[in-house]
Amino acid sequence: MKGKMKAVVKQTSAPGAELVMVDIPSPGPGEVLVNVHSASICGTDHHIYIWNEWAQGRIKPPKIMGHEFYGEVVELGDGTESIKVGDLVSAETHVVCGRCPLCLTGKGHVCKNTTILGVDINGAFAEYVVIPEANAWINGKNIPPELASIQEPLGNAVHTVLSGDIAGRTVAVTGCGPIGLMAIAVAKAVGAAAVYATEINGYRAELAMKMGAERVFNPAREDAVKGILEATGGYGVDVVAEMSGNPKAISQAFDMVKQGGRISLLGLPAKPVELDISEKLIFKGVTVKGITGRLMYDTWFQVKGLLESGRMDLQPVITHRLPLEDFKKGMELMDSGDCGKVILYP
Question: What is the pLDDT of residues 282-305, one digit of tens each?
Fold first, then answer.
């Protein structure tokens, strides 16, 4: 397919991005071209937009931004076998080598050769995007476009929450950004006994209640650890899903978890975090899980099953819908924190 398309491009090594016209990409061998119907803004996209320290060390402009999306396959590269034109797809955005010892032993989600859509290769804030056939996830035709586009971050929430037993357990979610909000819904859907949350932003705290949290504590105004200990008879929660990356929240996670409990860490601290390992981890017998991406493709099947079960209402997480041209407004919403998931429509 020849022609031009709209795309949000990180053009220079500086804050910001621009909507420009670029060539429609062509799929190479083993790749497919997708007409993007919807795309959602991720915290990673915001980091690239504001050009924080991580982005400065990773991104090499010019680069089309965006990785969470849904669309229709319109062209096939040579050698494709499992995808056909007209398929409605989302994507596993971590492109792995499939050949290293990690990939060959079922640990492709931590492949050392991973490249990421919209980070290392051109992404999906555009009218068209090229992805490997192996990364295309075929959706049912009854899934709404906005939900189809957030399956990748939902997979982060599913991987974090379901990295251990949840049914009948008490859970705390620290940090109620969009993935934290989805983590609340996941925990409730799979039978958590109670879900508590911590969040300093009032807008997102209200969303956390809509997602099913029993109570949301504001660590800036109250002792969240004390509140959660009181709510659990002094023992603490069985599971903490740490989604914020805030050093204080990480420390509090180890204070609010029960002896012998589990902490799953998804949030990314900007700098090294100091932690009393003897008292907070070893003597408490805590299991710590580091979460990156999604299990390929176990998590995707879990996401599909949860969506089809009807046990999760994710619509409250989607707070804003904007045309692609208004992507800067979406980034401003991310700046303020007064949003859940922001969906862009090319």
Answer: 999 999 999 999 999 999 999 999
Q: Which residues neighbour 136 within 8 Å (Cβ) at sequence distance 6 or greater? A: 32, 34, 73, 82, 83, 87, 89, 90, 91
Give backbone dihedrals phi and psi of 220, rounded to 5 degrees, phi first: -80, -15
- Predicted TM-score (pTM) of the model is 0.95
CATH number assigned to the domain comprising residue 125: 3.90.180.10
| CB neighbour list of residue 153: distance below 8 Å, 6 or more residues apart | 40, 42, 68, 178, 179, 182, 341
The DSSP bridge partners found for residue 257 are 237
Give me the phi and psi of 318, to 5 degrees please: -90, 105
Task: Write out the catalytic residue numbers.
Answer: 44, 47
For the cut 90, the answer to whether the pLDDT of residue 142 exceeds it is no
Q: How many domains does the chain have?
A: 2
User: Token pair for residue 311?
Assistant: 């046990």
* Residue whose C-alpha is closest to residue 242's, from 339, 171, 333: 171
Range of the domain at 173: 157-290
- Of 183, 255, 191, 168, give the one whose Cα is nearest residue 219: 255
Which backbone phi and psi does 54 adopt, to 5 degrees? -60, -45
Cα gap 207→181, rounded to integer Å: 7
Residue 308 forms part of a structural domain:
no
Pairing of strands 237-242, 257-265: parallel
What pLDDT sits at residue 158?
Answer: 98
Kindly state whether residue 209 falls inside one of the protein's structural domains. Answer: yes
